[in-house]
Structure formats: structure tokens, C-alpha cells
Write a structure and sequence with these properties.
The chain is an alpha+beta fold. Helices cover 20% and strands 36% of the residues. The N terminus is likely disordered.
Length: 761
């Protein structure tokens, strides 16, 4: 029993010893592990500090922090919008994960030292072997997460109010943020001034309540309407003008009770309530009117310089021109002792002139503004003027008579006529501006369509590009049409072939216009303003160069040719009022007046048999069509049109005479000729009442010197028509495009003061 007990105790003791030894061994292993870990930690930290990732984290963070500080401090100084700063910062944040990924991808293990025996150190290798596809996925995911985080945090990074405050304080003061109310007034279809191409002359009363404007509605005459913008009443007809193509300029009197206007060479005034217009002077040249005290300043038609006359008529005084140049568009300054005026090289280059100060006592002039025209003084203390088609303003001290600020563009897009300096704008004494939006009229009316219109009004398009066409003339065989193509200040003769559908150039001098065909169709005759100024002739097929037939003044157009003797009927615009003449013989080539009427006469057309001449004249007070025997014009005279007309065309095959009314109605008159005695020319013609064929755009949409705007093809029984818009279009947009709209700006003087402050401000 004892033995057994001892063996059991011995086994127990051995078991305890074994467990003790195991615990000791386990603790020893732990100690060894911890000691080994403590030895490895410094080497891992040192390795991390030397890695690309550590360098990128430290360097990129430092650079980004510096850049953000610069962005927040510098960009507001240059009035940079907040979104620019936020975008730059977002890109910097987005670049952080990309930089880390690139650094990790190209991280390399340090090279192994040589093992002795001359072994070379091993080549450094990449710290990992991650596939490129995995790297790309990690990069895209990291950029997406970081990008979303940056986008969310962006509003908290910058002080947006700081940016806004700097922008407002450094760009616009509270005074400069003033912007007047803007609205539009639609005054209907006014058509165009036949000479200038402008939609209307306009003027606003000193109190800003009344507006006057012109419409061109009845055979190149015009009407003046008055509108009271305080009420919804229909616009009231104030007066009618008889020679509106040569009239330009409307002006209220300083007290607002009269409206001044020119009617041909007559300067008139009429009360705003209506009544009979009074003639003040009969030698005005339509280049601006201004009231200075009890006198009117205007441009004299005879001397082509400025004159004054008492506003009620009489007491005319010429203003001596102490400097070279043409004086136009006067505007008297407060006090009436000085006036602004435009001075240019000549009366047809007003837009390239300058604004000068005219002393109405000593007549001395002082230059003020270069490259400017059509100036007016505003009560805000500014001179307002045109440069190209933009309205400019410059501060002006009316007491010191000196400019005291910078020239600033204030309203772009004013309808203007550069040659004569006309502009469609006006403003009241309390700062209400009205204007017609547009640009230089030779540009805005430069896109025209060529189309066929049948006698019943059916329209057929011609496959020709839209262009600035004028002066249509169909060839005798009706296969081609000659026309003028305008490009800016240049113009040349081109021919459109209907069958080949091609446009071919015939003249190359950039100064030719108004071609007509010889009766046999072999030659084109046209006006040239080149070194050899006059009527030129050239082969219609372009096979020969041009030759000068005879010299003429600059604006003379060939209109028709006598088929019997080759006499050329010419239309002269030298005096402003068109006059018909002819070149007497092929040998002498003398320019002689036809003396068809005591008034203006234009648009002549000789019948195919050469026995009759049709023309238009305003001798009755309105432009009408007349017919006379030719060449014996004193043998008789018959009025063809009843309610106005122009641009007559003969169709002798069917004994018809077509003409175009100013309202856009194409009319036909049938005629019959009384048989004359043997060997004598017919001298009696019987005419029917005019019959309307169809209606299109008014011919006043085409300036007078660029007509004829149509021609007739007997074989097609159709008219070739030139129109500023597609006649086939009946859309609302097309109708609205013909409407004249007045732009209105309220409290405009406050805008002028903010946009063009005086130096003292």
C-alpha cells in the first residue's frame, strides 16, 4: 500500500514539474517575441519615414495648405468669383489620393547587402506585386470617395461672403448698381426711309410723355404720328409729308408745345395738338435741328453750313465757318451761347466726323471728341454721342465747357445711317431714353431674297444665296438678271443665270452699280465711281473689259435705252431730288435734262416699241406714275396711278403697264394706242383703271438708289422680286420682324452717372 501511495505522489509531483516547465517556456517565448518586436519597431519606422508615401503625405499637405492660403488671400483681390477658388481647391484635394497611389505603386524595397565572396548587392525590387487593374480600381474608388468628401466640405473651406463683399466693393459702389426699368413700345410696321434705310425718325418730349415718329406708307411720302404713353389711346396722325425720302429729323421745342420737322427743303413746325404746319425756312438740308432761345439752328441747303432763324420765321443769319469741314447735327447747350456740332470731311461721310464745341457769338470751334457724330447734351451732365452704332457718353462740365471724365459705351445697337449721321434715339429732360435697336442700315438691310411671283401671287423660290442685292434688270431673252451686289462700302455688277443657277461677276472695281442691258442683250451699261467716273459699257458675257461712254457726276443711274437710236435715259441724284436726263446721241454723248416735270422725277421706263416713256413724279404732292410720248414729250401727258406708284414696267406684247404702289400692291393698267397718221409716231394713249394683282413687302423696304426692286418676265408671266424677307413665310416671327419696336429705359440719367462718373465724383 505504501509503495502504491509513493508512486502516486511521485507521479503527481512530476506532473506539476512538467506544467511548471511549460509555463516557464511560454513566458520565455513571450519575452522573446516582445524583445524581438521592440527591436523591429525602430527599423519599420525608419523605413516608413524613408518611403515615397511619407514624403508625399508631408510634401503634398504642406503645398496644398500654402496654396489654399494664397487662393483665399489673393483671388478676391482680382475680383475672382468664388467658384474659381472652389474649383482649384477641389482639384488639389482630388490630386492627393492620386499622388499616394502613384507613390505606393512605385515603392521599392531597399537593396540587399552583398553576402561576401565578391557578391554584388541585389537590385531593388517593388515592395508589392499588385496587378495594374487592381491599382486602377483602387485609384478610381479613392478619387470618388475623396472627391465626394471634398465637394461636401467645399462650402466650409472658403468665406463666400468675403468674396462677394470684395467683388461688390471693388467693382460697383451702391450708386453704380442703379439700372433703370426697361420695356418696349410696339408702333407697328413703319417700313423704311427710302433714302437712309432707317425704320423711323423718333423724338420724345422734354417731359417724357409724348413720342413722335414717322411712318413711310404711301409712295415714298411719310406721316408723322404722336403717341401719349400715359394712355392706351390710338396713336394720332399729326401731319403728312410730301417728300419724305429727302427729309430727316424730328425735334420737340424746349417747352414741348411744338414739333419741328423738315419736309423736303422746308423747315416746319406744328403744335402737338395738331393743326396746320407753319413754314419757318425753305432752305433746310435735313441734318439736325436745335432750338437755342428763340432761334432755330439748322443746316442751310444752299451754303451747306449752319444758320439760325427765329423760331416763328424770319431773321435768318448765317454762321460763318471758321474751320474747314461740313457742319451737321447741331445741339444747343443750356444758356444758348454754345452748341455741339458734328464736323466731317463732307456731307456723305458724317459718321467719320468729330464732335466740336461751337461758340455762337465768336463762331470759334473747339475739338471735344474724335471719331464721333450726332451728339446731344444730357441734363445728367454728359455729352451723348454715336460711335459706329453704339451710344457713348462722356461727362461734360457745362459751366466750364470742358470734358471731365472718360468716354464710355452705354447702349449698344442703335439704328444709324453712317453716311448722313442719322440715328434713331432720343431722351427727355427727366432721363427717359427711347431708341430703335439695330445697327448701320446698310448692314441690317443687307440680306435679301430673290423670288418669282406669278400674276396671281403664287411664289416660287430662286436657288440663290441671300445677299445685299439691288438694281434688278432682266436680260432681253429673260435667261439672266443683272444686279448690284453690295459688300460694305463696295459694290459691283453680277449676273445670275436662271438655267445654270450660278452667280457670275462682271465688274471688279468695287465701285459699280445700276446695270441695264442693251436692247440686243450683248452689253451691260452701268455707273462707275472709279477713276474713270461715269457711264460704262462692257460685254454682258464678260468677254471684254469696260470702257467709258461718258463722264457723269457720282450718283447717276442708267434706267432705260431707246431701242430706235440708243439714247440712254439717266436718273441723276446729284441735287438730292432725282431728275431724268438723257445722252443725246452716240457721238456727242451730252447729258441733257428731259424736263419731264417741275418737281422730282425718277424710275423711267421706255416701252418696247420706243414710243412711250413712263416715269414717277411728285408734282401733284405725291409720287405718281405718268406716261408721255417719246421722244416728243410735249405732245401729251397722262397720269396712270391714282393712289401713288413707282417703278413702272412695260409689257407691250399685251399692252400692259405694271407699277408698284408704296403699300406693297402690284398693279396693272391696260392701255390702247390711238392709230396715228401715216409716217407719224402715236401720240394718244388710253388707259384703264389700275387693277391690283397681288401685294408684297412695300418697296420702301429698299432704299431708292438700290431700286428697281422688281422686273417682269413675259414668257413666265411672273415677276422677279427682291425682298428683305422670304415672301413665302407667313409665320408670326416673319410678321413681327416687320414691326418697329421702341426700346425704353427709365431713369437713364442715373445709369449715365454710374457708368460714366465725372472725375470730381
Amino acid at each position: 500500500m505504501v509503495t502504491t501511495s509513493n508512486e502516486s505522489e511521485i507521479q503527481t509531483v512530476c506532473l506539476l514539474l512538467l506544467m511548471t516547465l511549460n509555463l516557464v517556456e511560454l513566458d520565455y517565448s513571450k519575452v522573446l517575441f516582445l524583445e524581438n518586436l521592440e527591436k523591429q519597431m525602430p527599423s519599420q519606422w525608419e523605413r516608413f519615414k524613408q518611403s515615397n508615401i511619407a514624403k508625399i503625405v508631408i510634401g503634398y499637405s504642406l503645398v496644398v495648405w500654402v496654396l489654399i492660403q494664397l487662393i483665399e488671400a489673393v483671388l478676391p483681390t482680382f475680383e475672382t468669383p468664388l467658384w474659381v477658388a472652389q474649383t482649384l481647391t477641389f482639384l488639389l484635394i482630388l490630386g492627393f489620393p492620386i499622388a499616394l497611389l502613384v507613390g505606393w505603386a512605385y515603392e521599392k524595397l531597399p537593396s540587399q547587402a552583398s553576402g561576401g565572396d565578391g557578391e554584388e548587392p541585389s537590385t531593388p525590387r517593388l515592395a508589392h506585386s499588385t496587378p495594374k487593374k487592381t491599382l486602377v480600381l483602387i485609384g478610381v474608388g479613392s478619387c470618388a470617395v475623396i472627391g465626394l468628401f471634398g465637394f461636401y466640405m467645399m462650402p466650409f473651406i472658403f468665406d463666400g461672403e468675403g468674396f462677394d463683399d470684395v467683388n461688390i466693393s471693388q467693382s460697383l459702389t451702391p450708386k453704380q448698381t442703379a439700372r433703370g426699368l426697361r420695356f418696349e413700345l410696339r408702333i407697328g410696321e413703319t417700313r423704311l426711309n427710302a433714302t437712309t434705310g432707317r425704320k423711323s425718325d423718333i423724338a420724345i418730349s422734354p417731359d417724357g410723355n409724348l413720342i413722335v415718329y414717322k411712318t413711310y406708307t404711301n409712295n415714298d411720302s411719310s406721316e408723322i404720328y404722336i403717341k401719349d404713353i400715359r394712355y392706351d389711346d390710338a396713336d394720332r396722325l399729326l401731319t403728312s409729308l410730301t417728300t419724305s425720302p429727302y427729309s430727316e429729323g424730328l425735334k420737340f421745342s424746349n417747352d414741348g408745345s411744338w414739333v419741328y420737322f423738315s419736309d423736303g427743303a422746308d423747315l416746319k413746325r406744328i403744335r402737338v395738338e395738331g393743326g396746320v404746319a407753319q413754314i419757318i425756312a425753305n432752305d433746310v438740308n435735313q441734318r439736325g435741328i436745335s432750338e437755342a432761345g428763340n432761334k432755330i439752328i439748322y443746316r442751310d441747303q444752299i451754303t451747306t453750313q449752319l444758320s439760325t432763324i427765329v423760331s416763328s420765321g424770319g431773321g435768318k443769319e448765317e454762321i460763318p465757318a471758321l474751320t474747314a469741314g461740313t457742319f451737321t447735327w447741331p445741339d444747343a447747350l443750356p444758356g444758348g451761347t454754345h452748341a455741339l456740332t458734328t464736323i466731317s470731311d463732307n456731307a456723305l461721310n458724317v459718321g467719320s466726323g468729330s464732335i466740336e464745341l461751337l461758340d455762337l457769338t465768336s463762331f470759334e470751334v473747339t475739338p471735344l471728341i474724335q471719331n464721333a457724330y450726332h451728339a446731344e447734351y444730357a441734363e445728367s451732365g454728359h455729352i451723348v454721342f454715336l460711335r459706329d452704332s453704339t451710344l457713348w457718353a462722356v461727362p461734360f462740365d457745362v459751366d466750364e465747357l470742358a470734358i471731365n471724365g472718360n468716354e464710355v459705351p452705354v447702349v449698344p445697337g442703335i439704328e444709324t445711317y453712317f453716311q448722313r449721321g442719322g440715328a434713331s434715339y432720343s431722351f427727355s429732360d427727366n432721363g427717359r431714353l427711347i431708341y430703335i435697336n439695330g445697327n448701320e442700315t446698310t448692314e441690317q438691310n443687307s440680306s435679301r431674297f430673290l423670288q418669282w411671283i406669278s400674276r396671281s401671287g403664287e411664289i416660287e423660290s430662286i436657288n440663290a444665296d441671300r445677299g445685299y442685292y439691288g438694281n434688278l434688270s432682266m436680260s432681253p431673252d429673260e435667261s439672266k438678271v443683272a444686279m448690284t451686289l453690295y459688300e460694305g462700302d463696295n459694290s459691283d455688277i453680277w449676273v445670275w443665270d436662271f438655267e445654270r443657277e450660278i452667280l457670275e461677276r462682271r465688274s471688279f472695281g468695287n465701285n459699280s452699280f445700276g446695270a441695264i442691258w442693251s436692247p440686243d442683250g450683248t452689253k451691260l451699261l452701268y455707273q462707275s465711281n472709279g477713276e474713270l467716273g461715269g457711264i460704262m459699257a462692257m460685254s454682258s458675257n464678260g468677254s471684254s473689259t469696260s470702257n467709258l461712254l461718258f463722264e457723269t457726276p457720282s450718283l447717276v443711274l442708267p434706267r432705260s435705252i431707246n431701242p430706235h437710236n440708243g439714247e440712254i435715259i439717266l436718273e441723276s441724284w446729284v441735287s438730292g431730288c432725282p431728275e431724268l436726263s438723257y445722252a443725246a446721241t452716240e457721238v456727242e454723248r451730252l447729258l441733257q435734262s428731259l424736263e419731264l416735270s417741275p418737281a422730282c422725277s425718277a424710275w423711267s421706263s421706255i416701252s418696247q416699241d420706243g414710243n412711250w416713256i413712263a416715269y414717277s413724279s411728285n408734282e401733284t404732292g405725291r409720287i405718281e406714275i405718268f406716261v408721255r410720248p417719246f421722244p416728243d414729250i410735249d405732245e401729251g401727258k397722262w397720269q396712270v396711278s391714282r393712289n401713288g406708284g413707282n417703278q413702272p414696267i412695260w409689257n407691250s406684247a399685251k399692252k400692259e403697264l405694271f407699277f408698284w404702289s408704296q403699300a406693297g400692291e402690284h398693279m396693272v393698267v391696260n392701255y390702247d394706242v390711238e392709230e396715228p397718221p401715216e409716217s407719224e409716231r402715236p401720240s394718244v394713249i388710253r388707259l384703264s383703271n389700275p387693277i391690283k394683282l397681288f401685294a408684297t413687302t412695300s418697296p420702301s423696304m429698299i432704299p431708292m438708289t438700290q431700286r428697281n426692286a422688281w422686273d417682269y418676265s413675259p414668257s413666265r408671266e411672273s415677276f422677279l422680286v427682291m425682298s428683305p424677307r422670304d415672301l413665302k413665310s407667313t409665320s408670326t416671327e416673319a410678321v413681327l420682324a416687320d414691326q418697329t419696336v421702341l426700346k425704353v429705359i427709365e431713369n437713364w440719367f442715373s445709369e449715365l452717372k454710374s457708368m460714366a462718373p465725372a472725375d470730381s465724383d
